[in-house]
């Protein structure tokens, strides 16, 4: 149950755009959640917007008071301390609604899908072109965090969906990005 939260607010920086700093911060959080095998810490982005599409400059962590304090005693924020303000762990307001905050994946690049299919299925370029037309590409209006895969080194966009507020919380587990399809986080 996510009874507590803490906000990590990015400071304005003339050298780095907020999106780049949020990507670095979120990558560090992801590595910390992996190393701690944490499936009980969720995230949300309370400043996210759909128009214009922005993830915002605030990363909110959700969990129990003890679990959040335990995470924050680790050195996972090293290298980011000059770029962030970290609030104290606080209790969630009693009137808070709840939201699912989850990852959404989209087919945004037909050419990349074709190359992948050719590698995986040993199909010719012509066959793949017929199977994957340009029309499969989807336009995405969700905010995202730009990350680099630790395993492949490739950059990718992690699209984040905040669902409509729910009246009741739902318990469940979070993935190593702090996102979940079955657990809600408080929204206030």
Summary tags:
Alpha-Beta Plaits, 4 helices, alpha+beta, Type I-F CRISPR-associated endoribonuclease Cas6/Csy4, CRISPR-Cas6/Csy4_sf, CRISPR-assoc_prot_Csy4, 188 residues, 11 strands, five-stranded antiparallel sheet
Short description:
The protein is α+β, with helices and mostly antiparallel strands. The protein is 24% helix and 27% strand. The protein has a domain at 4-103 and 169-187: Alpha-Beta Plaits (2-Layer Sandwich), CATH 3.30.70.
Structure write-up:
- By secondary structure, the protein is an alpha+beta fold.
- The chain has a domain at 4-103 and 169-187: Alpha-Beta Plaits (2-Layer Sandwich).
- The protein is 24% helix and 27% strand.
- Strands 1, 2, 5, 6 and 7 form a five-stranded antiparallel beta sheet that branches. Strands 9-10-8-11 form a four-stranded antiparallel beta sheet. A two-stranded antiparallel ribbon has the order 3-4.
- β9 and β10 form a beta hairpin.
- The relative contact order is 0.25.
The CATH homologous superfamily of the domain at 4-103 and 169-187 is named: CRISPR-associated endoribonuclease Cas6/Csy4
- Classify the helix fraction into a percent range: 10-25%
Residue-averaged pLDDT, rounded?
91
From the spread of the alpha carbons, the general shape counts as: globular
Uncertain residue ranges: none
Q: How far from one another are the termini? A: 16 Å
CATH topology of the domain at 4-103 and 169-187: Alpha-Beta Plaits
Number of helices: 4
Q: Provide the CATH architecture of the domain at 4-103 and 169-187.
A: 2-Layer Sandwich
Structural class: alpha+beta
Biggest sheet descriptor: 5 strands, antiparallel
Identify the CATH class of the domain at 4-103 and 169-187: Alpha Beta
> How much strand?
25-35%
Number of DSSP strands? 11
Helix-strand string: EHEEEEHEEEHHEEE
| Cα radius of gyration in angstroms | 18 Å
């Amino acid at each position: 149950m996510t009874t507590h939260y803490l906000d990590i607010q990015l400071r304005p920086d003339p050298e780095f755009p907020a999106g780049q700093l949020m990507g670095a911060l979120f990558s560090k959080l992801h590595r910390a959640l992996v190393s701690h095998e944490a499936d009980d810490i969720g995230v949300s982005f309370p400043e996210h917007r759909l128009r214009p599409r922005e993830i915002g400059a605030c990363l909110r962590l959700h969990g129990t008071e003890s679990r959040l304090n335990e995470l924050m005693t680790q050195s996972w924020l090293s290298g980011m301390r000059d770029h962030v303000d970290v609030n104290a762990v606080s209790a969630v307001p009693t009137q808070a609604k709840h939201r699912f905050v989850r990852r959404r994946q989209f087919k945004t690049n037909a050419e990349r899908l074709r190359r992948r299919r050719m590698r995986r299925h040993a199909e010719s370029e012509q066959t793949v072109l017929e199977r994957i037309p340009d029309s499969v590409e989807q336009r995405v209006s969700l905010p995202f965090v730009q990350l680099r895969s630790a395993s492949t080194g490739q950059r990718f966009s992690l699209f984040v969906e905040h669902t409509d507020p729910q009246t009741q919380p739902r318990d469940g587990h979070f993935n190593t990005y702090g996102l979940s399809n079955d657990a809600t986080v408080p929204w206030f």
